[in-house]
């Protein structure tokens, strides 16, 4: 994944309407009417935002007669999550352990 592709995908996900669309598509393939019903977004905004998600590679489409079905591109979303995790030093196989402050002790922000 190139930096430009990652930036486009992160921008696409960082919009409240597009995030609602992605949530509506979680675990399901839906046509535009079903996405509208599940998300309450409405036309033509829904079509515009689906185009942004499609251009960013976050959703795939399948046409069946006159209906277009959308689904999340799991492999692309996994690449985005992996790239974002690497920014914080995380990987798919490791999870950063969080610090727990000691009771009764002053805790200061750690810069570094």
Automatic annotation (TrEMBL):
All residue ranges annotated as the HTH arsR-type domain in the record: 1-92
CDD domains according to UniProt: HTH_ARSR
Highest taxon of the lineage: Bacteria
Alphabetized Gene3D superfamilies for the sequence: Winged helix-like DNA-binding domain superfamily/Winged helix DNA-binding domain (1.10.10.10)
UniProt keyword annotations, A-Z: Arsenical resistance, DNA-binding, Transcription, Transcription regulation
InterPro entries for this protein: ArsR-like_HTH, HTH_ArsR_DNA-bd_dom, HTH_MetalResp_TranReg, WH-like_DNA-bd_sf, WH_DNA-bd_sf
SUPFAM superfamilies linked to this entry: Winged helix' DNA-binding domain
PANTHER family given in the database record: ARSENICAL RESISTANCE OPERON REPRESSOR, TRANSCRIPTIONAL REGULATOR, ARSR FAMILY
NCBIfam families documented for this protein: HTH_metalloreg
Name recorded for this polypeptide: Metalloregulator ArsR/SmtB family transcription factor
The organism of origin for this protein: Parerythrobacter lacustris
């Amino acid at each position: 994944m190139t930096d430009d592709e990652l930036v486009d995908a992160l921008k696409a996900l960082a919009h409240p309407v597009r995030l609602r669309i992605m949530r509506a598509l979680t675990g399901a393939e839906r046509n535009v009417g079903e996405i509208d019903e599940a998300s309450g977004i409405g036309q033509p905004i829904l079509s515009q935002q689906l185009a942004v998600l499609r251009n960013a590679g976050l959703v795939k489409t399948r046409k069946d007669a006159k209906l277009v079905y959308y689904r999340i591109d799991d492999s692309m979303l996994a690449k985005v999550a992996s790239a974002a995790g690497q920014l914080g030093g995380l990987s798919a196989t490791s999870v950063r352990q969080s610090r727990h402050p000691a009771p009764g002790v002053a805790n200061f922000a750690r810069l570094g």
